[in-house]
Hints:
By secondary structure, this protein is α+β, with helices and mostly antiparallel strands.
Amino acid sequence: MLFKFSNLSWLICLLCLPFHTLQAQIEVKLNNNQEFRYDLKKGSFSLLENKKLVFENAISSYQLKNGAVQEVASSNPRALKQKFKDNAGSGICYSIEHFSKNGTKAIQNFYFYDGSPFFVMELVLKGRNISSNALSPFQLKGQSLLSGKNLSSVFVPFDNDTFIEYKQQDFASEPYESSELGILYDNKDQSGFLTASLDQSTWKTGILAKQDHQQTDLEVKNGFVKASVTRDSMEHGYLSGNEIRSSKILISYSKNWQDGLDEFAKFQRKLFPPNIKAWTAGTPVGWNSWGVIQTKLSWENATATVDYFKDSLPKFRNENGKAYIDLDSFWDNMVPGGMAGDYSKLKEFADYCKAAGLEPGVYWAPFTDWGHGSGPDRKAEGSDYTFGEMWTKTSAGFHDLDGGRALDPTHPGTQARMKFILGKLKECGFKMIKIDFLSHAAIESSKFYNPNVKTGMQAYAIGMTYLNELLDNQMLIYAAISPSLATYRYAHMRRIACDAWKTIDQTAYTLNAITFGFWQTYLYDYIDADHLVFTGESHDVNIARFLSGVVAGPLILGDDFSQDEEWHSSMEPILQNPEILNIIKNGKSFRPLPIMQDNRTSNIYLKREGNKAYLIALNFKEGHAHFDIDLNTLGLTGNYKMQDLINTQETKVTSKLDIEFDSIGGRIFKLEKE
């Protein structure tokens, strides 16, 4: 990394770089032919690649409570240079200090990591008793962004509730908004521009943009809320004090947008490590009761499933010989007296699993009240608090979604209930827990019980940290409905999309989330494609559904195995195929290829393992489909032996690969270099 200061060259070794001339410009060369420039006269910054603009004249802005939006600029800024070191690496930080007439000092910190092709920035406000719920560290106003490129934008959801999905569209077609991460990429050359929040413990962040005649407005805004995205019914909470700090923001332009996303996810996990130990007991495989059994969960059908796994699927195990039998909601059917009652039968079930060589799992939604229709005066388990006292207060009253009412994660009643119920489940001996409806814990509130908590994400961090403390690294934590980026610090595995179990349309929906959210495989230990249900579908649809699980990594089945089904004989050998089970061993997802029948979901997925490569192809539509793949463009050069891992047919391929479908279905191939 090289550094240059126009008109300030003699000051390069000093920590303080005073602004001596209005022409002063800070220049930093990144390691991929990119150059960052900061214009001290304008208070703006630009990024170039090979002397061509990526963007120009970006600024920062903020809004204090009851005040107007203020752009960060001043007539006499001060630039400071210092070395830094953090969890993600080391490098040079440049701090540009601006003093405003209202007495507030705004500081832009730019972090340049040694060997990194991106930069990180943040905005810090200093003053006396200031308050804000709107900081924009990065903002373009009618400026150039990747001029001449025909960009596609990708909407990234805040969470995976209400069957929300990733949406790709022409960037210039309509206004763009995305949550926590903004993705703009060129379909032709696959280059991509990314803007991302790196810390979700305080702010909700939106990426908001529009483009008109190649002039772009783009804002990375801390303090973004919208009912259809973040689920909030009120404005973002205010941060107050003598210092207010934005989240750190990553700015990246890469030759391949997928590489840039992988790099971002790895970097965020390194910069802000998980709050729990990494899972080392192997890629999760097993069963969950919600796919088919749902509310009819009983001792009889649960133990029959254990027996089926023991007797009919003895080789459907992960690399450590483990499989999980997970009781979803309505496990309290086995607890006389409800959740405050007698857990002895539940413990008996956990022991039954262990005796069969299986790992028992369970479910809970710690931040929702499902009985709120019965009124506020019901006592919560584990304390004398009532549910009405624990409900999250909003300017609209309360937060109800999916039938559940949000509970304040900072309330002592919520936490006492967590301690009681999670303690009971630990005593039963469960080794896995699926936690659900976590987005309810991130809702903005008019007043949290803890007066120091001002935002939904602060409350979320407190609730999830407490959950981790209670579980004490004794269970595999599997998050279902949950914030997409914020949850990795508190869970080992996360469902990639909303409830989707068996139809080809549901499979396409699930894989939409992997098509554009594959990078989460590097945030989490595992991403999960949800329950794999085969009952009532054709064999071809079942193969596609099973392979959607292989694409993600973990394989969690969802049928009622207490019932005999025709598909058992055809799917049992596939579920126990050692070659396929070996593919998921490293726990990481396949990468989608930019081959789509529509604008929604990739049809082809690739994974490399040494001198081998694996391809999964899917056809989501009735009728014939044909996919041409140039292996050279994937870095697969030379001659390969290709084997269909389901029908075991072998062929030889060189640079061109043609995959044909007569109708709906999925296929998985191993390519081994000769």
